[in-house]
Design goal:
Elements: E1 3-7, E2 10-13, E3 18-25, E4 34-39, E5 46-51, E6 57-59, E7 67-72, E8 77-82, E9 91-97, E10 109-114
Parallel strand pairs: 2-10
Antiparallel strand pairs: 1-3, 3-8, 4-5, 4-9, 5-6, 7-8, 9-10
Length: about 120
Amino acid sequence: QVQFVESGGGLVQAGRSLTLSCAASGSTIRSNAVGWFRQAPGKEREWVARITIGGTTTYTDSVAGRFTISRDNAKNTVYLQMNSLKPEDTAVYYCNWYFRTWATWGQGTQVTVSS
C-alpha cells in the first residue's frame, strides 16, 4: 500500500554533493528496512544502500565512503547524502523496501554528474 516519491536529483559537476529524499506514504518506514537503488541507461537496476529498522546501514562497494543513507521517522522520509560524485553515479535513483517484497516503484529522481 506504500507509495514512494523520490526527489532531490539534478545536474552536478564531478566532485560535488547532492542529497536525495524518499518520502513514503501509506506505510511507516520505522517498521521496515529501506533501500536506495539506481538504474543507468542501458543497465539493470542495482542496489546502492540500505538502512534497517535498527538503523544499521550498508552500502555497495562502489559508493561506500561517499554515500550516507539516513532516515527521519517523524517525516517518514529516507535520505541519501551523496558526496564526491562521479560520472558513473549518473542514473535514476529509486527507493523501496529491502527485506520485504518490493512495492510499486516510484518515478525515481534523475542524477546526472558531468565530468
